[in-house]
Amino acid sequence: MQISNEDYKQFKPLLFSIGYRMLGSVAEAEDIVQETFLKSYQIDDQKIDNKKAYLCKIMTNRCLDVLKSARYRREHYVGPWNPEPLLLESSPEFDDPSEVVLQKEGLSIAYLRMMEHLAPDERAVLLLREIFNFSYLEISNIIEKTEENCRKIFSRAKQKISSIEGESLNYEKNKSIIDRFIQAFQMQNMDALLELISEKVTLYSDGGGKVKAAVRPIESRSNVLAFLYGIIKKAAEDFYFEVKKVNGQPAIVIYMNGKIQSIISFYISNDTINEMYITMNPDKLPTH
C-alpha cells in the first residue's frame, strides 16, 4: 500500500488513539502504530479501497493479538494495575488542534481502567463504535464478525461498564474540585474533605513491584486520607507538585529529585471524588 507523508500524518493520531485506548500503554501503542505502517507497505494497492479502514483493521487486530497473548495477562502484576498516564501537553501525538476530537472521550484513567473488565472483542467494538463513530458495517469488516454479532457485543460491553456513565468530563469544573481538594488536604480541613470525597472512595496505587505501593485497593475516606497523609510525611524535601492535564483531565503530578515520582488521577461524579489512581511504577511515568 502506498502511504505518503500526508497519509502518515493524517492517520497516525487515529491509530495511536485506538492503540492507547485498547492497551492502556503509550509505548505499546506507539510500537503497534509503527508495525501497522510497516505491514501496510507490504500490501498490494489493488486490493485496498479505503486506506483509513484498512489501517484501522491492521491496528485493531494487532491490539487484539496483544490483549489475548499470555504476556499481556496481568495475573502476575504486583498490586493494582493502572493505565499508563498520558500527559497530553507533552505528547507529540496531540500537537495538532485538529486532533482534539481524538482526546474527547474514552481517554480518562477511570474509563481505561473500566475497560479492563471487558473481553478484547468487547473493548474493540465499544471503542470503534462509541469513541470513533465507526458504523457496525465498518466494525464487522475490521474484526471479521457479522454486523448482528457486533451489535450484541456492543450492547454487552455497555452493560459491563455502565457504572462509569456518570463520570464528569468537564475539565474546568473538575479542576476546581481538585484545587479545592488540594487546599483542604493541605489545611487538613476535614469538613471540606468530607464534602469533596465520597465516603466509599477507593484508591488504586500502582507501583508494579518496582517501588513501594499499596498492593491492594484502599477503601473508605478515612483509610484513603490516612494513606495520603502517610505519603506526604515521608516525602523528600524537594517534593513539589503541579496540576496538569493528564488523559484529558486534571491530575496531580508529583515531582521528587527533579523528576516525576507519581501521578494522581481522579474519577469524579456528581461533584465528588469517587476513585483515585496513583501511578508510581517508573516504567509508566514520563521521563520529562
Can you summarize this structure?
The protein has helices spanning about 5-25, 25-40, 50-70, 110-115, 120-130, 135-145, 145-160, 170-185, 190-195, 220-235; strands spanning about 195-205, 220, 240-245, 250-255, 260-270, 270-280. It has about 290 residues and is α+β, with helices and mostly antiparallel strands.
Could you explain how this protein is built, in words?
With 288 residues, the protein is of the alpha+beta class. The protein has two domains: 126 residues, Butyryl-CoA Dehydrogenase, subunit A, domain 3 (Up-down Bundle); 114 residues, Nuclear Transport Factor 2, Chain: A. The protein is built from ten helices and six strands, in the order αααααααααββαββββ. Helix 5 crosses helix 7 and helix 6 crosses helix 7. It is elongated. The relative contact order is 0.13. The model has no long low-confidence stretch (mean pLDDT 88). This is RNA polymerase sigma-70 factor.
Features:
alpha+beta, six-stranded mixed beta sheet, 2 domains, 16% strand, RNA_pol_sigma_r2, 10 helices, Nuclear Transport Factor 2, Chain: A
**Element-by-element helix/strand order:** HHHHHHHHHEEHEEEE
Q: Report the principal-axis shape.
A: elongated
Q: In percent terms, what proportion of residues is strand? A: 15-25%
How many structural domains? 2
Distance between the amino and carboxyl termini: 36 Å
The low-confidence parts are: none
Number of helices: 10
Report helical residue fraction. Answer: 40-55%
Give the total of beta strands: 6
Domain RNA polymerase sigma-70 region: 8-71
InterPro entries: ECF_Sigma-70_Domain, NTF2-like_dom_sf, RNA_pol_sigma-70_dom, RNA_pol_sigma-70_ECF, RNA_pol_sigma70_r2, RNA_pol_sigma70_r4_t2, RNA_pol_sigma_r2, RNA_pol_sigma_r3/r4-like
Pfam families: Sigma70_r2 (PF04542), Sigma70_r4_2 (PF08281)
Protein name: RNA polymerase sigma-70 factor
